[in-house]
Write a sequence for this structure.
């Protein structure tokens, strides 16, 4: 189940699968395994359910002061759980644009990096860490900026090694980080090329989550250079991709942050909810989403 989460599987379907698996684990009284699974279940809930603070990893399956106050150590003997809680909090902060909180979780997760060696988290945490730091470069001091850039370069070296061993899983991540590096240094042509490679690579390898993330970052890049037409196209596309992924909390978040750019795309998709899909359940889900949004 957790591997499917990293690979961008349909979130509502993944939640049902996780719930069935959790029932089996509970019947076997495997409390530690259940704890590890539940932190991912909570992340799925945060992405699919609209709440006041969707970036806070707390709810039915996961609770505690640590999420309200980034940096507080989690009291548990389960080191893998502690890593994943920080890792998933980092992801949620990235998705919902809470970059400063994200850096705190990133620092905690990187300290526990050895807990996830050879797992998808081991390269994804480097990816997310670089993205939150790149998103803060224009708003931090010279000292912090240099510190972040050193960390990003270090992460890129590790991601490059990973891409040589797991090209399908990692190369598009490497390209997205590189696109944002080019954008920061004003190398717009190279940035556009890297964004295109990142989006195409994620799509080719069925990473719907990363495709949505890369498309949103590309849209924000075009906004930053004043190309409103391309920005609108990319942001609208990102909204559709998050919709297809089932991340309805992110869909609502985008509607609050980019309303002029995505309104027309939203209405089209709600009228034709099978866009990007091929089954009746997605049509029913589209009707339910429309009711929820209205």
């Amino acid at each position: 189940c957790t591997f499917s989460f990293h690979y961008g599987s349909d979130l509502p379907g993944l939640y049902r699968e996780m719930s069935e698996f959790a029932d089996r684990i509970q019947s076997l009284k495997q409390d530690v395994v259940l704890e590890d699974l539940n932190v991912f279940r909570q992340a799925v809930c945060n992405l699919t359910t609209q709440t006041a603070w969707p970036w806070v990893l707390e709810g039915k399956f996961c609770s505690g002061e640590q999420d309200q106050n980034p940096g507080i150590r989690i009291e548990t003997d389960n080191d893998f759980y502690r890593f994943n809680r920080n890792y998933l909090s980092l992801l949620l902060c990235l998705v919902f644009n809470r970059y400063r909180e994200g850096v705190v979780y990133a620092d905690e997760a990187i300290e526990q990096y050895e807990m996830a060696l050879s797992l998808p988290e081991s390269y994804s945490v480097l990816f997310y860490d670089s993205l939150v730091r790149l998103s803060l470069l224009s708003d931090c001091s010279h000292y912090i900026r240099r510190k972040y850039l050193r960390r990003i370069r270090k992460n890129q070296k590790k991601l490059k090694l990973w891409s040589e061993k797991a090209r399908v899983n990692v190369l598009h991540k490497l390209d997205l980080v590189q696109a944002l590096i080019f954008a920061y240094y004003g190398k717009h042509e190279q940035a556009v090329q890297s964004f295109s490679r990142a989006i195409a690579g994620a799509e080719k390898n069925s990473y719907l989550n990363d495709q949505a993330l890369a498309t949103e970052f590309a849209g924000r890049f075009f906004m930053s250079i004043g190309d409103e037409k391309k920005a609108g196209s990319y942001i609208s596309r990102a909204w559709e991709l998050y919709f297809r992924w089932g991340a309805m909390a992110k869909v609502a978040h985008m509607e609050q942050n980019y309303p002029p750019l995505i309104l027309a795309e939203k209405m089209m998709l709600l009228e034709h909810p099978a866009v990007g899909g091929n089954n009746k359940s997605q049509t029913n889900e589209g009707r339910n989403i429309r009711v929820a949004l209205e």
